[in-house]
Amino acid sequence: MAHTPDSHEAPRHDAEEPLVAELTPDVAPTMEAFLGEVAEHVEEGAQEAKAQAGSVVGPYIAFQHVHKSFGEFVVLDDVNFFVNAGETLCILGRSGVGKSVSLQILMGFLKPDSGTVLVAGQDIAGFNERQMQEVRRKVTMVFQNGALFDSITVGENVAFPLRERGGMSEEEMLQVVKGLLEMVGVAGMEDKLPSDLSTGMKRSVAIARALAAQPTAVLYDEPTTMVDPLMGQLLGDLIQRLKQQLHLTSIVVTHDTRFAENLADRVVFLHEGRARFFGTMAEMRASEDPILREFLALDELVLPY
Ligand SMILES: Nc1ncnc2c1ncn2[C@@H]1O[C@H](COP(=O)(O)OP(=O)(O)OP(=O)(O)O)[C@@H](O)[C@H]1O
C-alpha cells in the first residue's frame, strides 16, 4: 500500500487485506486471536438465527410491516426490508424520512406501533429492557457522534466492553485496545479524552469499542458524514473488511450513494413513510422511478469528489 505524506490519495485497503496486516508486531498475535473469536461469535450467531427461523436461509435483521408515528406524524408506514447474516444493507433517503428512527427501533430505543422487528433472528418488538440488553450484546450501534463516555479516556472507552465480559488479563486488554485503535486508524490515542478528538476520530473509537464487544452485527448511523474524505474512505474500507473477513452483518444509514455502491448487498430507500425501493444498488440505478432518479441525480451534484 503506497502512501506518501504529501499524497492527496487516501490509502486504500483491499477487502481481502488482513485486518491485522498493519498492526504493530507486539499486538498482532493477540489481535489475531481476538478477531478469530469475533468471527466465531458471528458464525454462532448466524447458526442460532437460522435455527430460530427454522430454515437454512433467513433474515438476520428485518422490518416486516413496521409502522411508527409520533402523534399525528407518520414516520414509517408499512416498511419492509431485510438483511441476511453476513450481508450489508444501506438505508438511503433524504433528511427526516426515518432512517435514524429505523435504527433506534432495531436497537429497542424506540418501539414500533405495529409490525415485526427481527434482530439476530428474534422478534424484538415486544422485548423488555432486560431482553434488549441481551440483544445489544450481539447487535451494537455506532452513533454519529460516537456516544463515547466523556469522562474516561479513549483507551478505557474501548476497554469497557472487554471489562464487562471479563476473562482477560490487564495486559491482554491493553493489547486488544491498542490493536483495535490501530485497526480503525487512530493509533496511540489511548490516553486522550474523547473531547480531544475530531468527529471522525470519535467515530473510529466508537467502532473500536463496538468491535471490543465482539458483536455479530453493527449498525452505523452516517459513518462518513462530517469527516474528511480520507477518514471517510478509511471507515468505508474498514466496514468492507469487517464484512469480508469476519462476516459481520451491517446496516449503514447513509446519504452517500457511492458509499452504498461499494458496500451494500442491498439498499432500502425510504420516502414519505414508505420503503419506496428495496433491492441492489444496480437495480436502483436502473429504476425509472422519478423520485429515485431525482435522489440519485441530486446526490451526484452534492458529493464533493
Ligand atoms: N423521539 C421523537 N419524537 C418525535 N419526533 C421524532 C422523534 N425522533 C424522530 N422524530 C421525527 O421523525 C422524523 C424522522 O427522523 P429521523 O431522525 O429518523 O430522520 P433521518 O431520516 O435519520 O434524517 P437525517 O438524515 O436528517 O438524520 C423527523 O421528522 C423527526 O423530527
TrEMBL record:
Pfam families with a match to the protein in the record: ABC_tran (PF00005)
For this chain, one GO molecular function annotation is: ATP binding
Keywords assigned: ATP-binding, Nucleotide-binding, Transport
Top-level taxon of origin: Bacteria
Residue limits of the ABC transporter domain? 61-297
User: Which InterPro entries does the record cross-reference, listed alphabetically?
Assistant: AAA+_ATPase, ABC_transporter-like_ATP-bd, P-loop_NTPase
What is the designated name of this protein? ABC transporter ATP-binding protein
Q: Which organism is it from?
A: Granulicella cerasi
Q: What is the lineage of its organism?
A: Bacteria, Pseudomonadati, Acidobacteriota, Terriglobia, Terriglobales
